[in-house]
Amino acid sequence: MAGASAGSLAVATYNCGLEPEKATQALHEFASNCRSNGTRYRLGGLLRDFLHAYLPDDAHERCRGNTHVALTRLFPVVRSEMVSEFESKDDFINALLTSCHIPFYFNGSWMTEFRGKFYMDGGVAAFIPRPPTEYAVKVCCFPVNEVLATVQDRVAQYERVASLLDVSISPDAYEPWPFNYAKMVTWALVPADDDMLRYMINKGRRDARAWAQRMLLVPQDAAANLTGGEGAGDIGGGAERAAERVRQAQAQREAVAEGLGSNGDGTGLRGRTGDPSVAKVTSAGMQSCESGSGSER
User: Fold this and answer.
1) Where is the active site (predicted)?
2) C or N terminus of the chain, fewer CB within 10 Å?
3) In this model, does residue 267 exceed pLDDT 90?
4) What pLDDT, in 10s, does the model give residues 30-67?
5) CA angle, 199 as apex, 198 and 204 as ends, to 5°?
6) Phi-psi group of 264: left, alpha or beta (phi > 0 → left; psi -120 to 50 → alpha; rest → beta)
7) C-alpha angle 76/40/129, rounded to 5°?
8) pLDDT of residue 235
9) Residues belonging to the active site
10) 3-state secondary structure string, the chain?
């Protein structure tokens, strides 16, 4: 498995054998701290503390050879590098922090030193890195289908570029997703409220299950005619409230589909002034969002 930036954290968490409940607990604690105290210039130190607290002492041994962490090396030329051998837990955590180093935002510096060389966020040079295997399933946390529908035909003749766009699992791969890239980037920097985090965890489970069902990898689902991620299971405790907000956002997106530009609320479209249906949906959506955290407003 390979990952860049936050993707490297997901791969590390899995290969370290963290129980889903413990990983979810860490996510909510980390997100709460970020929402309360901010993330700019302090994200690096906070992430280091959480990785030391939650990863096992033998994390470097568990992840050696099976966790490929993508880094963007800066000198003498900008290029992607992957590391999968780690000397200690500290060395492993330093690799993860290097992969997550968003220039300036992470800790105030535009680059970071790792093993005597200078790097930045691994996603800069390898947005979705590929492990050294014959086959790979690419997963992206951003909605990519609309972009692919626009550009894929034009780049299909370029095999290398086309391979970069071959994403199997993303938020809009198997069901509508109303939030645009700008909104998702906002949530990447300042986490959404806990209800929305639970919803997105559930959605990730559904999307992965939907892919497995499409590839006929779940015989019992095929026998039961389950599709679209049915049977993945949900985490409760507020996810249903966020689900209603997602439905409202999708309704708003569809209601203003004939407009241009952005509403400024992350749905990616702007309705026509005076359209009562838009006003009605917008009002409902804003009322729902007010019950969430500041990152949702």
Assistant:
1) 5, 121
2) C
3) no
4) 999 999 999 999 999 999 999 999 999 999 999 999 99
5) 100
6) left
7) 45
8) 73
9) 5, 121
10) CEEECHHHHHHHHHHCCCCHHHHHHHHHHHHHHHHHHCCCCCHHHHHHHHHHHHCCCCHHHHHCCCCEEEEEECCCCCEEEEECCCCCHHHHHHHHHHHCCCCCCCCCCCCEEECCEEEECHHHCCCCCCCCCCCCCCECCCCCHHHHHHHHHHHCCCHHHHHHCCCCECCCCCCCCCCCHHHHHHHHHCCCCHHHHHHHHHHHHHHHHHHHHHCCCCHHHHHCCCCCCCCCCCCCCCHHHHHHHHHHHHHHHHHCCCCCCCCCCCCCCCCCCCCHHHHHHHHHHHHHHCCCCHHHC
**pLDDT band at 271, cuts 50/70/90?**
very low
Closest CA to 245 of 271, 279, 282, 207: 282
According to the model, what pLDDT value does residue 159 have? 66
Q: Which two tokens stand for residue 65?
A: 């050879």
Strands 117-120 and 2-4: unpaired
Q: Hey, CA dihedral for 265, 269, 273, 276, is it positive or negative?
A: negative
